[in-house]
Design goal:
By secondary structure, the protein is α/β, with parallel strands linked by helices. The chain is built from twelve helices and twelve strands. Helix 5 packs across helix 12 and helix 10 packs across helix 11.
């Protein structure tokens, strides 16, 4: 897929292919009545020139669509809903529309093509589960982008919680309560944010003289159902953990329900600690102790970074790191 080229129009494609602008329009819009030979010639010119059809007559004049793509992770995770609410509001106030796209790992090639074809002015990548190749595929389009997390593309603007320190906060909290056999329900360690949280957590355990046991580590892809199953396995061990550190609140909810299904009391029998502090964490049904990342500040900051990039495309990449903090509620207690 070619890099983004703003100045190419259907007229340029028509000249390069030796056809009329009307013929280019017919092909772009999927209409019949064009020979295979001409269609092949026009499609080759489109690919070579990096042309994309604009969404409106206005964009033909300004080379802007006033549309920002927002790539979301699992929509079942309220973390992304909270981010989207703030991001879309900020973009709307700045005069931009929001195009919401799925960031599932198995759709990134289609995702990149959609961003290319819709001619978005910029993109905010909210999901941390994109691989370096996935993120690189999107950034290679030449679309200004901001990554919300430790981005794999270092010359890309990014804003992230301090995941390493967040992991340390989690480890210090649980060890300070006297826990020595602590389970972890994480995402894939190939993801930078997950890896950093785990490294910080293990480092905090080492500082407290607590060994981390590999058999107490479960990767649940930051998914509720997988977390429920992972917690069930851990809590059924002959020597189960006395505490669980879950890498996001959604997996903590899965762990809470797994404990309830097994008749295990929280926090009397097992302490459960989350990460994010989504709004649901404070609901009485959960009352989850969690490591808070500044979700709203991240959302505001991502929009500010992208608007600054659109205004000054040549500026150096900015990398913003925001602090995490502990929010103590009722799901953890001293051993």
């Amino acid at each position: 897929m070619p890099s983004r080229t703003r100045g190419v129009t259907s007229i340029d494609v028509a000249k390069a292919a030796g056809v009329s602008q009307t013929t280019v329009s017919r092909i772009v819009n999927g209409r019949e009545g064009v020979s295979d030979e001409i269609r092949t010639r026009v499609e080759a010119a489109i690919e070579r020139l990096g042309y994309r059809p604009n969404l409106s007559a206005r964009s033909l004049v300004t080379s802007r669509t006033q549309t920002i793509g927002v790539v979301l992770g699992d929509p079942r995770n309220s973390y992304y809903a909270e981010l989207l609410h703030t991001i879309s509001g900020e973009l709307n106030r700045a005069g931009y529309r929001t195009l919401i796209l799925s960031g599932r790992a198995d759709t990134t090639e289609d995702l990149a093509r959609t961003l290319w074809e819709t001619n978005v002015d910029g993109v905010i990548l909210t999901t941390t589960l994109l691989s370096a190749d996935d993120e690189g595929r999107i950034v290679s389009l030449g679309v200004p982008a901001v990554t919300m997390g430790p981005g794999a593309v270092t010359d890309n603007d990014s804003i992230s919680p301090d995941n390493l320190d967040g992991g340390r906060i989690a480890g210090r909290h649980l060890t300070s309560l006297g826990h020595r056999r602590i389970g972890v329900i994480a995402g894939p360690l190939t993801t930078a944010s997950v890896r950093e949280r785990h490294e910080g957590f293990v480092a905090a355990l080492a500082d407290a003289g607590v060994a981390f046991h590999d058999e107490l580590f479960e990767s649940a892809n930051l998914d509720y159902t997988r977390a429920f199953d992972a917690a069930t396995r851990l809590l059924r061990l002959p020597e189960p953990p006395t505490a669980l550190f879950c890498h996001n609140d959604l997996t903590a909810f899965g762990a809470l329900n797994a404990a309830k299904a097994l008749g295990i009391r929280v926090p009397e029998d097992v302490s459960i600690l989350g990460f994010d502090d989504v709004a649901m964490s404070s609901w009485q049904a959960f009352d989850l102790t969690t490591v808070r990342q500044p979700i709203l500040d991240m959302a505001h900051g991502a929009v500010e970074l992208l608007l600054a990039r659109l205004a000054s495309p040549g500026q150096d990449a900015a990398h913003v790191l925001l602090p995490c903090s502990l929010v103590e509620r009722s799901t953890t207690r001293p051993l």
